Amino acid sequence: MRNPPLHRYATRPGFYFTEDGGADVVVRSETADQVWLSVIESLDDPSAFYQDAIRLFDVPNVPFVDQIREFPVCMRILEDLYVRETLFRMQGPNYGLWYVHIPKAWSGMRYGFRVDGAWDPRHGVRFNPYKLLLDPYAKGIDGKMELTPAAFSYECEVVDNRVHGSAFGNMSTVDSLGHMPLSVAIDDRDKTKHDDDPDHPHIPWSKTVIYELHVKGFTAQAPWLPEEMRGTYAGLAHPTTLAYLQGLGVTSIELLPIQAKQPEVFLQERDRVNYWGYNTLGFFAPEPSYATKAAQKAGAEAVRQEVIDMVRALHEAGFEVIMDVVYNHSCEGGVEGPTVCWRGLDAISTYRRQKNNIGRLEDTTGCGNTFDFTNTHVVTFAIDSLRYWAKRIGIDGFRFDLGVSLARLNGEFTQHHPFLYALRADLLLGNLKLIMEPWDLGNLGWRTGQFAVPFAEWNDRFRDTSRQFWLTDVESGGRVGRIGMQEMATRLCGSADLFATDPGRGAASSINFVTCHDGFTLTDLTRYANKHNEANGENNNDGSNVNHSANFGTEGETDDVTIVARRERAAMNMLGTLLLSLGTPMMLAGDEFGNSQDGNNNAYCQDSPISYLKWDWLYQPEKSWHMHRLETVSKLVALRKSLDLYHQEGFFTRLTQLGLLKPSSRIQWFLPNGTTPMERDWFDLGQRSFAMQLLDASETDILIVINGVPEDRQFRLPADNAWTPAWCSAESTGHMPGHGTTVENLKLEGQQTVWTVSVPESSQIHNLVERMQQGETDGATARQLSDALDADMAAIARAEARAAAERALHRHAPAPQQAAHAVAAATGARGAHAQSSQSAQSASHSASTGASSPNAATPEPQQQSEPQHSSPVDTAAEQATTGAETDTNVWTFPALSITLMKQLS
């Protein structure tokens, strides 16, 4: 066989088609003794290498791995698999790389590597030529691993679907061909194939609203799709799917991992799968199972094209595409795991090792292994993969799973890590959206806010603050809780305490979220006090036990209309906090209409209806609570996008060149009586009602009013403007702020659908809902909500009657008695001052709120009751001093609500 000069530089592994009809193949293995390229062909087709290869035959007591060492090119036939394997001896190592040029190559060619070398598990060396290995740079993958002894490099048995054997024992001599996935070559040399691609939307960070979804789960039960498109890339690209996303108003679609995946061994032993996909098999190849059956049958190139078409369709519809990626570990797991790729190629250079036991792997990911990002070649591999997805597939950004593990030097995190510099310095990647999950399971693994420009980060402090303020604190009585005004104000203002780490880094770096794929859905946060993961098969031991959730008196679903109403109000409070805070909001798909996972907060292994979005509510002809929520969420997203106050990336408080937080004149704070909070108010955990005014010289001012107590509350709004409510979380249960002394009641019954009200009739999603509603439906859910609202309104009427009577008594009471009533009401409404457990940590963000010191003790929490829509007796102190009943600037806000007020022109 002729061996022409290589056509590629010796710096990059990969499969490169050449002009002579062949290919250059390069792979890295720094410590191997010999590497072979293995090409797999069907016996139904003539071999492309017939003239070059020496045929091998079985020889008693001579393993085939000894035979292949004799010839540069050899071929063997495996009749039981009905395939032909041709092996090319590669040249090397040259700076750790092995090379070969093959005379013929084609798109769709299946191949892999066999690698020979030392077998010394206790020193981390596990070369085994009996194992056919994937190309780490493979652009397509065909097949999947079988749970058999062939998958493991050490001798073992699989008995009753369980693996038995020692990873430090003898080397396995079972050939893995036929039991493991194969690499697939894809020819993408055509430089003009992307010339007609739509322009990338390039949404500014300040205008970004992220929507996290699972490609399969989002459309697996979508009634508007034909069966063959459900759960696929093509289903997500369908016009009706895109119309739904446009109707919601989000800007950027974040996809759970779509790189090829493989279930962990312990899941395979239990006949389960890794549904989420955070266990990567191939970092260049898309996951085949999300493609249509037709594309899967056509092969890896058709699967890849379906992914490209999906991205194009999303771009044409105006959406960015952000991809969740997992470069912290591989699917091979710990040393007991299978040998699929990296372990067989060069385990020493690929994975981090324990300092005192090199035979064992360092694990900061909880998945058995951690890629060694102190190795330049591991960094290069990750950058090459990311560039491929951005340039060839069209991805607009990446969210890095367990980002702290990617930035550890000598075991410790540093924002100056070479990988982070490589990302930000790359001309392509440095201009994309780069989002870090700022924690891992290693030493000092919580690093929220510690990645520098240009990285954004998931803000878990925002998540926990929102949940505690609106759920667990309310469940404990709603008077005094763990979260007070100072902590809430800091999160509303963009979390400057965490993200104002250097001049130039803005609030958009904070990815605010209340829910994500990992944990309860928004609806389940309000239905379940405890996780219910029994279906996962791990005795409910998996998943987090700290959820800051509340069930409002009953675990799970209920027909109790009062509980249903309280839950819906709580859900809308959290969504309102999310979308009215400075920073970049991220929503979990399905939260906008109340999707539930039945209390499962770790559905990573549930490729089942538990994880799939449930669209049956679309069939209901009357407006159900699902539709009410969808309408209010889409309205809130539209309001956020319409306000220029949110279209800037700086904090309302700025970081000076001296590193000090500088308060801004663009924000003002008010207590319900219209006064500015005093120092003691910021740390008073009983102060749960306040207003935040955002000022803008060029547009309408807005006011965000939070009433965190379980009674309607009067607020004296700033007198420099006339105000009108633009959105309120209480809309979903039939209430709006009222101008004067009572809240306004809404009539929600009788409306047709959410979309006939808020979406033009010409919209595709309008037509979708109408089509869905032509079927038969059970109106029980709609009736339940209607009953809940009727009951709520009846309670309001009764409360108002009581309030009128009390006011009449007060008007005839002696002045000292009136004062006593006022003092009693004020004390009951506010509670005593209390010191925040986080006050010591909060000094850095006190400047954003004007706070500087904490106060004293906390009273016993009171038993929570349902939100009371009553007269403003609880604000009698304010009425006594401000004349609230006649003041045109007094508004009454519903109990436990968040409201957006706009200045009247």
Task: Describe the protein in words.
The protein has about 900 residues and is α+β, with helices and mostly antiparallel strands. It has an 8-stranded parallel β-barrel with strand order 16-17-20-23-26-27-28-29. Strands 4-5-6-3-9-15-12 form a 7-stranded mixed sheet. The protein has 4 domains: about 15-185, Immunoglobulin-like; about 205-325 and about 370-645, Alpha-Beta Barrel (TIM Barrel); about 655-750 and about 890-905, Golgi alpha-mannosidase II (Immunoglobulin-like, Sandwich), CATH 2.60.40; about 765-805, no CATH class. The longest helix is centred in the C-terminal third of the chain and has 33 residues, at about 780-810. Helix content is about 25%, strand content about 20%. A hairpin with a 2-residue loop joins strand 21 (about 355) and strand 22 (about 355-360).
- General form: elongated
Tell me the number of strands.
41
CATH architecture tag of the largest domain: Alpha-Beta Barrel
Mean pLDDT: 85
Strand content: 15-25%
Query: Which structural class fits the helix and strand makeup?
Result: alpha+beta
Ends apart, CA distance between termini = 82 Å
CATH class of the largest domain: Alpha Beta
Number of helices: 22
Q: Which strand order does the major sheet show? A: 16-17-20-23-26-27-28-29
CATH superfamily of the largest domain: Glycosidases
> At the third CATH level, what is the topology name of the largest domain?
TIM Barrel
The main sheet comes to: 8 strands, parallel, barrel
Amount of helix = 25-40%
Number of domains: 4
Poorly predicted runs = 750-760, 775-866, 870-885
- The radius of gyration is 31 Å
